[in-house]
Write a structure and sequence with these properties.
Chain A contains nine helices and seven strands, in the order αβαβααβαααβββαβα. Chain A has 319 residues and is of the alpha+beta class. Chain B has one domain (31-164): Immunoglobulin-like (Sandwich). In chain B, strands 1, 2, 3, 4, 5, 6, 7, 8, 9, 10 and 11 form an eleven-stranded mixed β-sheet that branches. The chains are: A alpha+beta (319), B mainly beta (171).
Chain lengths: 319, 171
Amino acid sequence: MLRWMTLLTDDISRLASGEPILADPNPELAIGAARFSAYVGFGPSLFRKLGLESQMPSGFGPLPSFKVDQLQDQFSGGDVLIHIAADDPIVLSHGTRGLIRDSLPFASVRYSQSGFAHTPGMVPAGLTHRNLMGQVDGTANPKPGSEDFNEVVWIEDGPAWIQGGTQLVFRRIAMQLNTWDQLGTASKEEVIGRKLSNGAPLTGVNEEDAPDFAARHPNGLTVIPDFAHIRRASPQNVTDRMFRRPFSYEASPASDGTPDVGLLWTAYQRDMTKQFIPVQRRLDELDLLNEWTVPIGSAEFAIAGGIARGEIIAQALFS
Amino acid sequence: MPPAADNLGNDMRKIAALLTLLPLLAGCAPQGTVEITDYWVKSSEMSTQGGMTAVYGTITNTTGDDVVLIGGSTDAAGVVEVHQMSMIGGEMKMQEIDGGLVIPAGQSVTLEPGGDHLMLMMLKTDVVAGGTIEVLFDFEGAEDIILSDVVGKPAEGGDEEYHSGEMEMDN
């Protein structure tokens, strides 16, 4: 594992600088960094295989099953995750190829799931990712770099290798667009609890406005319905929040035109047992959005703390 | 997190990079030196004990005189030779370079798969992906260079001789 991490660490460092990796057979494709980034995570099955269960961070382990789940093996699990991102698809493809090539002496590919977000500059600053149901997605996230973000995301204690690291929950969520598209705008907004135009809560004006869950229409019904996604997902205490980083995916449509689209939904947190799981349990109990969204893939990974130049990813775990 | 991509486009950045390259090299080595950068050793199904592999990298000569890579040594191999690939009788073949590989004054030469390389034969140990070996580069006209951390990289292609039964070695 340490030799593998040695190669990946050097590769990621070079790719993030827009340089070709060592032994790159196509160095001419290193045309720029394009905000290339990659990190490596380790699934519960890897800790089991290597007898390293004692090195798992607090709260980390296989997710329980949820009744909304229709998980498929081909999109789920895995020993080691490499999550690769870049603003340019050619840079991304070339970088991915290099990281796979340098992984083959140690592992085989279980799955590769491609996703996308907006082209930089496409949406106004401050507007989050708009998913393929049309919703503004990723609102109410902690701000990267803030004290709030640090407390939600970064692990501070436990085994040395995980300090400064985090826990990732990954869900591949299929969208039933054919039936979703039959709803009118008002219905779609009630399902989510936000306006489609700018992501503002139904009780507010701007995306960042805090939802008023107590607000009622003159007829007595709550403005944000009891079944609305944001009511069910909103934190019930200080710990059950996450940093969500959703991407969209699109596979080939069926012959009748039914789209195969959805989210590669990722969320980062200190402790998935205290953060993701309680939120997902509430959504599993009641969330009208479940009618149109089906989790078909799921995985969890522990992400090692960041490193300085000259260090190796997860060195303390595998030494 | 790397800096945001330059919206001017990659061509513009390439030009900027080229313009700054020469002063940087000169600035690093005012008296002139020979340096080896971006070096690696190939890890493949052939790079096991008794087998062979090759070391690659970029040799930069900022001195005022030509230097010649005439050979090398490593604990990992019984034989080390400077090889080149060339078209002989319509086929790519590799052979030892007579008199060594010249790195002209002020220039860089890249050892790469399919081109010039430092050949390691009769390996004494397996050369594995992500592992490191120590290699001495033997120069004429400059001090020898010892690289203690030449990393094994999985690589295919470029070196037909690794996989071809018809390969000829013209040592």
